[in-house]
Amino acid sequence: MVRMLWWLLAVAGVSILGILLSQQRALDPVQNLTLLAASPLEAGLFDLGEPVADFFGGIVNRGELVRENRQLREEVERLQAELAQQEDAALRIQELEGLLEVKKGRPQQTLLVAEVIAQDPGGVKEAIAIDRGAQDGLEEGMVVLSEGASLVGTVTRVLDDFSWVTLVTDPDSAVNAQVLLADSLARGVASGDLRNSLLLDMVPSEADLEEGALVTTSGLGGNYPRALLIGSVVAVDERPQALFQKATLEPAADLSRLETVLVLTSFIPARLQGP
Amino acid sequence: MKYVIALAAIFFLTAFSSSALSYGRLWGVRPDLLLVFVACWAALRGQGEAMVVAPLAGFLRDLMTSDPVGTSALALAPIVLLAAYREFNPTDLQFLPALALVAVGTLAYGIISMTVLTAVGYNVPWYDALLRHLVPAVLLNVLVTPAIYLPLRWFTAATVPVSPTRIGPTVRL
Predict the structure, then answer these.
(1) From the CA of B122, how many Å to the nearest CA of chain A?
(2) Full domain range(s) for residue B154
(3) Residue A2 falls within a domain, yes or no?
(4) ipTM greater than 0.85, yes or no?
(5) Contact, A237 vs A247, CB < 8 A?
(6) CB contact (8 A) between residue A22 and residue B68
(7) What are the pLDDT digits (tens) for B66-76?
């Protein structure tokens, strides 16, 4: 009994010390080293897991269909992203023409390709580890896109050779968003949700939300560039008396099967810019 | 030697959970093979060995995931405490206690890790996390327990010498 008590005190003490040191980033080199050792095994297991998942995901020989479906999804996602950018650009031109302001071009985007090496196994957090880190010029707050150029998440922890990316479906993630409606925009906040994966909230009640409407980043707050595709509306939570509407979104990127992502290194989020 | 094997198993299970297993969700959750491994180890091999294996598993897992280092070691500690039942258990039947240990351990693990995450400033939606993550996770972990328990029982039978204090296969003096 006494031995147990001492053990418990020791584990609690070391754990709390570890948590405090982690918060101070003092253990980052050790984490980087561990990921360095584990990444070859994880990469191999990732490759192994995909066909197994394909097999169990369908009936015999359905893996090919799943892969084809994924390719088509990526194509649709890419086209949706293009469409969203075009629609946004058209609306933006209208806005700017209306205000007689000079068009301000977006600087050319620079993207860094990164491989996904791990997915956080914890159930509450939605995060992935990528094989790019501080040595590649990554900084916390940088925006991460899928191969189809839709929003995946934000870099939240940078080690020397690896980084952790918090996905848009993480409960701790919130992105200023806009819904592209027939002739207008409606702004809201897209946040991760354990129940619905991705939830769009704070949309004014007068906005005419409909299923299938595309949702992109609004650029408000300066943490994300404008017009990055987030997803599309799959269900609208209609509450007549409420000031704001809610909608469930389907992320444009298949976040459960990410293999390669793109880090937007040319965009410096507001949180990284000095005063 | 047994701890080296345990460490290798922990390393493999953590890597497996964060890679290949990311494809395998059921009821919106993935099985926590490492927790099941620690619980089965505690049930089959006793509290003494679990006192070494649980912190090892916890710290190694946190080094390979995005949680603050120490969260999992703290969250796995209740499994070691609960393994004390084994000292008072008069039979060698460990499977049902192992299932109970997995179920209670999953609940304790979830609550402690979410408490730590909340304490470090992470926004944990407690209601949804308890209802939509923790409850399915308990069921799923219990379901996958045989996949870990059976190989571990074989390993235990092959490595643990028969105790001279036992008479027959089921009664302990």
Answers:
(1) 6
(2) 2-158
(3) no
(4) no
(5) yes
(6) yes
(7) 888 999 999 99
